[in-house]
C-alpha cells in the first residue's frame, strides 16, 4: 500500500512538471483564431474574447505555485500597440491580482508572454489594444548591384605601348582631367592593368627621357677688345710703342 501511495505521489509530481504544448481556438466576431500555448503545473480549460476591453479571458486550473503559462499571439489576430509602436499587455488574475509576466519573444509576426500564476488561480485576463490588425510588411531594401570593372579600362588600346598613356597622363593636364572625370572609380595604374610600382617606373623613365632631350645652351663668348694706352698702337693684337712719328712731328 505504501509503495502504491509513493508511486501516485511521484506520478503527480512528475506530471505537474511536464510542459504541455497546446493549441486552442477563440471566436472573435464570428472568426475563429488558433492560439498556441504551453503550460507547466497548470491547465487551461477555456478561452473567450471581450471586445469591450479588447481582452482574452482564460479559464485555468493552477496546481503548482507558480504555474507557468506561455502564450503566443499572432499579431494579425491580437496585439497591443500605441501610436504604431509596441505597448505592454496588461495581465490580471482572478479579477484583481497582477501576476508576474515577461515578454519572452517579439518579432514582426508574433509576441509571446510568460505568465507566472499562484496555485489556485481560476482565470487570467490578458488585455491588449486591437483584434485583427493588418500587418504591413516592411519592404526589404534592394541589394546593391556591384558592377565589375573592366580591366584594363575601355580606353586602353592593347596595340599601343602603355608608356604612351602614361606620358600623356604625366605631361598633359587636360588628359589627366579627362581620365579623372570619366574613370573616377579607377586608379590610373588599375585602368592600365599594371601595378603602382610599374606605373612609377614608367614615370621615372619618361622624366629621364625628357630631361635628356632638352638641349643645354652654352653661353656665347664675349669677344675680347684690347685697348692700348697713350703712345702705343695695336699691332697683331698686341700694344706696341708708336714709332711712326718722332718728337715734334
Kindly report how far apart the N and C termini lie: 179 Å
Q: How many extended strands?
A: 15
Mass-distribution shape: rod-shaped
Oligomer: single chain
User: What would the CATH topology of the domain at 15-131 be?
Assistant: Chondroitinase Ac, Chain A, domain 3
Helical/strand content category: alpha+beta
Write the layout of secondary structure elements.
Elements: H1 2-17, E1 19-28, E2 31-40, E3 42-50, E4 55-62, E5 67-74, E6 78-79, E7 81-82, E8 85-86, E9 90-93, E10 101-106, E11 110-117, E12 123-127, E13 130-131, H2 162-171, H3 173-182, H4 188-191, H5 196-213, E14 232-235, E15 238-241
In short:
This protein is of the alpha+beta class. It has helices at 2-17, 162-171, 173-182, 188-191, 196-213, and strands spanning 19-28, 31-40, 42-50, 55-62, 67-74, 78-79, 81-82, 85-86, 90-93, 101-106, 110-117, 123-127, 130-131, 232-235, 238-241. The termini are far apart.
How would you describe what is shown here?
- This protein is α+β, with helices and mostly antiparallel strands and 249 residues long.
- Among the domains are: 15-131, Chondroitinase Ac, Chain A, domain 3 (Sandwich), CATH 2.60.220; 162-209, no CATH class.
- Helices cover 23% and strands 34% of the residues.
- The protein contains five helices and 15 strands.
- It has helices at 2-17, 162-171, 173-182, 188-191, 196-213, and strands at residues 19-28, 31-40, 42-50, 55-62, 67-74, 78-79, 81-82, 85-86, 90-93, 101-106, 110-117, 123-127, 130-131, 232-235, 238-241.
- It has a five-stranded antiparallel beta sheet with strand order 1-2-5-11-10, with no helix packed on it.
- A hairpin with a 4-residue loop joins β3 (42-50) and β4 (55-62).
Amino acid at each position: 500500500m505504501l509503495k502504491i501511495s509513493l508511486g501516485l505521489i511521484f506520478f503527480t509530481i512528475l506530471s505537474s512538471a511536464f510542459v504541455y504544448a497546446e493549441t486552442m481556438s477563440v471566436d472573435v466576431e464570428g472568426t475563429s483564431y488558433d492560439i498556441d500555448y504551453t503550460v507547466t503545473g497548470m491547465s487551461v480549460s477555456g478561452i473567450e474574447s471581450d471586445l469591450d476591453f479588447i481582452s482574452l479571458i482564460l479559464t485555468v486550473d493552477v496546481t503548482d505555485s507558480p504555474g507557468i503559462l506561455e502564450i503566443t499571439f499572432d499579431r494579425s489576430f491580437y496585439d497591443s500597440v500605441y501610436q504604431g509602436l509596441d505597448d505592454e499587455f496588461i495581465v490580471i488574475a482572478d479579477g484583481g491580482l497582477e501576476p508576474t509576466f515577461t515578454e519572452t519573444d517579439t518579432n514582426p509576426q508574433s509576441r509571446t508572454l510568460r505568465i507566472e500564476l499562484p496555485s489556485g488561480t481560476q482565470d487570467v485576463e490578458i488585455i491588449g489594444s486591437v483584434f485583427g490588425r493588418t500587418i504591413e510588411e516592411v519592404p526589404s531594401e534592394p541589394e546593391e548591384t556591384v558592377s565589375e570593372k573592366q580591366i584594363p579600362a575601355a580606353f586602353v588600346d592593347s596595340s599601343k605601348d602603355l608608356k604612351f598613356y602614361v606620358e600623356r597622363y604625366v605631361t598633359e593636364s587636360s588628359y589627366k582631367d579627362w581620365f579623372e572625370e570619366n574613370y573616377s572609380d579607377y586608379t590610373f595604374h588599375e585602368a592600365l592593368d599594371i601595378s603602382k610600382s610599374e606605373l612609377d617606373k614608367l614615370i621615372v623613365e619618361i622624366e629621364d627621357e625628357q630631361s635628356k632631350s632638352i638641349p643645354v645652351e652654352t653661353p656665347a663668348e664675349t669677344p675680347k677688345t684690347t685697348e692700348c694706352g697713350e703712345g702705343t698702337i695695336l699691332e697683331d693684337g698686341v700694344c706696341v710703342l708708336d714709332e711712326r712719328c718722332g718728337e715734334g712731328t
